[in-house]
Design goal:
This protein has 282 residues and is mainly alpha-helical. It is built from nine helices and seven strands. The radius of gyration is 21 Å and the shape is globular.
Length: 282
Amino acid sequence: MRQGVRDAGTFAAQEALLQPNDGKRNGVVQRKVADVKHLEALTTPGTETESITAVPEAMEKNTVAADTPLPWTKTGWDAKDLLTRLGQYDRLAGTDSDSKRCVQAVALASHIVSGPAAVAAFLGNAVSAGLKKGPLTQRVDTAMKVLGEVKALVGAKTATFGDRSWAQEALHDMSLGDKVGTPIEAIADAVVPEHDAGVMQKLDIWCASAGEVLGHTSSLKEGQQLLVTQWTVSFNAHFDDTDGDEIEVIPEGPDGKTSAPVTIKRIATKTKPPATLRPQAR
């Protein structure tokens, strides 16, 4: 998938948000995401996500303290440094969809490389798109307010890594439960919401190694990005343990719900199967 060149006019419209200050905006002390009312609406009691938090060493290595300032510069931020340290997991007690918000992490990252103005515009567009999707529940309203706060903090150049993580959480929670990942059909809109300056082109290309992935970056033009989704597909592993070339399975969706049994067949793998051969049952 590629993210197209973004419209420079969007950045110009946000220029006022990039002025450095002393932590105040229009003479008012900046609020924090933690000050958003009903923040608990983004947390589901009893939710246990698949998280690296179970391994303290991994948590320490792959996350940073929530109050760590973003790597601001005179003209914006150091995107490479920011993305090196920002992942989809965090040390915040209030976020609980860490393992399910990979799409939202990628969406935010794809705008971070274009600078603070691009992120501010993206968050605003995400809120606008969210208003059209369904009823304004307490959870949705809180998520939108969180995104508004993070947008303001980005403009004030006071946003932290924790604020970035709250933005990921809010982007996810506007339309999904804490135990649910983004459906395939909703990925494009999540990465490039309505009115976003970017254009996303879906590519169905299976790569067997990192080298193959890097090979596709050579055709990218200035300002384009290659967004990669990692899939692990089991072709015939279970067939090797059984007799015959057909197996009946019960598919299970990302929300844990099952559907009617289906029959899958052994796939010929002497040549690389087409990228379209990715049935959910497998």
